[in-house]
Amino acid sequence: MPQHLYLYEDIIDAIDILDDNADREETLLSLYIRRNFDQELKYFVANCESDVPGKLITDEFAEKRMNCRQICM
Fold this sequence. Notes:
The protein is mostly helical. Helix content is about 30%, strand content about 0%. It is globular.
């Protein structure tokens, strides 16, 4: 999530927000610049149908997700 980008500052040098859809790519860029996304995940994550708002993804969950080896999926 854009609001958790700071967690990756010492781990990654770049993020890939390229998308085949130019409008979606522009929206993603805007969200990452603002570092905030609080709408439903289905509008942010491709192939996701979750109605969970992004604001409910806590810093603690994001940190666990970094090392869960996708067990949390």
